Amino acid sequence: MRAWTGPCEDGNRRWTTLRLEDLNACFTGLLDAIVRAYDQQTNPASA
């Protein structure tokens, strides 16, 4: 069970959490490109 942190903590989390669907709707393909670039840097053999 998570400890209660108060209404401000919960409210801040709601406003700062990015949703994948929202980002993809605004920036189609951007997240895929970022993940692919990160994967290529961390696993050069998979490129």
Rg to the nearest angstrom?
A: 17 Å
Instruction: Give the overall average pLDDT.
Output: 75
Shape from CA axes?
elongated
Count of strand segments: 0
Helix-residue proportion: 55-70%
Measured between the Cα atoms of the first and last residue, the distance is: 42 Å
| Beta strand % | under 5%
Overview of the structural elements:
- The structure is a single chain.
- The chain is mostly helical and 47 residues long.
- 64% of the residues lie in helices and 0% in strands.
- The protein has three helices and no strands.
- The longest helix has 13 residues.
- The protein starts with 6 loop residues before the first helix and ends in a 5-residue tail after the last helix.
